[in-house]
From TrEMBL:
Taxon lineage: Bacteria, Fusobacteriati, Fusobacteriota, Fusobacteriia, Fusobacteriales
Keywords: Membrane, Transmembrane, Transmembrane helix
Protein name as annotated: VanZ-like domain-containing protein
Residues that span the membrane, as ranges: 15-32, 121-138
Keyword Membrane attributed: yes
Superkingdom classification of source: Bacteria
Organism: Leptotrichia rugosa
Length: 147
């Protein structure tokens, strides 16, 4: 009964957003990123490498048609989107929800000087756009709940 009530509120819709965005970002990594990433060792350890290799054999060739910004920046932005949507289930405060976005942007900018990594303006752009989309859907779902 409690699960049913949870899903009847906008939370069920938010959970769908969370899982679809994580799934999309994961598929970009699995299908199109280089195999030297740590997750491919995990797949091998879990005996999932045959499935991953099958998928990659069928999709990796399409990598040349996908912009580099989608391959390298979109998955991180999808994570920000997903986490923002997830937190909106528990926190209604917009400042709290914005902290994920702000922290991600700050970390990206600090990569210019202090944080290990490579600063990429596309990371910032994608995160900003997906943060705005997340806030739009959060507001939309809240308005629909009041109707």
């Amino acid at each position: 009964m409690k699960v049913n009530k949870f899903l009847k509120t906008g939370n069920g819709e938010k959970i769908i957003h969370v899982f679809l965005s994580i799934f999309a970002g994961s598929m970009i990594y699995i299908l199109f990123r280089e195999k030297n990433l740590l997750m491919f060792k995990w797949f091998k350890f879990l005996k999932l490498d045959f499935i991953i290799n099958f998928l990659r054999d069928n999709f990796y060739k399409y990598r040349i048609y996908i912009p580099k910004s989608v391959l390298f920046s979109l998955p991180d932005a999808l994570w920000v989107y997903s986490f923002t949507m997830f937190l909106s289930i528990y926190f209604k405060n917009r400042i709290m929800l914005s902290s994920i976005f702000a922290g991600s942007i700050i970390t990206e900018i600090l990569q210019l000087w202090f944080v290990t990594g490579t600063f990429d303006i596309y990371d910032v752009i994608y995160m900003f756009v997906l943060y705005l989309i997340a806030m739009y859907f959060i507001k939309k779902i809240e308005v629909e709940e009041k109707i």
